[in-house]
Design a protein that fits this description.
The protein has 147 residues and is mostly helical. 49% of the residues lie in helices and 12% in strands. The protein has one domain: Alpha-Beta Complex (Aspartate Aminotransferase, domain 1). The protein contains 4 helices and 3 strands, in the order ααβαββα. It has a 3-stranded antiparallel beta sheet with strand order 1-3-2. The chain is globular.
């Protein structure tokens, strides 16, 4: 092996575990906060965008979603794009113009957005995503963004 080994993660572990326990109320509390925020964010986006979720609860009551991850349909038609870089173009626009990071992709002729919630997120982050995507949609429909 050439080079040096970075021991920073090892040195930070104790402080990170203390942070979760003392500042966040433990892992169960952190999980509950993240799940609650994600549910609130998904509800907000579905309402503002009028779209559907890809992942959902099942009839047997078992949740098939990862705990801090959700996928929601974007209100942007894939037909507005001329090539196959649908998701990439939306991600680039969100990142460069709106300073929003997310993953978007084409699946079954619809554009989708992968959402997550972590301890540093707030509902305002989901509100900003909602407005940013609606602005992109409006600009695409007016042909002010090259697709």
């Amino acid at each position: 092996m050439v080079g040096t080994r970075d021991f920073t993660p090892d040195l930070c572990l104790e402080a990170a575990l203390m942070f979760v326990e003392k500042d966040l109320g433990g892992f169960a509390s952190m999980r509950e906060k993240n799940v609650s925020l994600l549910e609130e964010g998904v509800s907000l986006l579905r309402q503002r965008w009028g779209t559907r979720s890809l992942l959902s609860d099942t009839d047997d009551g078992l949740i098939r979603n990862p705990p801090f991850l959700h996928v929601i349909e974007l209100p942007i038609s894939a037909a507005l794009f001329k090539d196959s870089q649908y998701g990439d173009e939306i991600m680039k626009e969100l990142a460069s113009r709106y300073k929003v990071q997310t993953v978007s992709f084409l699946w079954c002729e619809s554009l989708w957005c992968r959402l997550s919630a972590q301890v540093y997120n707030r509902i305002q982050d989901f509100e900003r995503l909602a407005e940013s995507v609606l602005d992109i949609k409006s600009r695409l429909e007016k042909h002010t963004i090259p697709a």
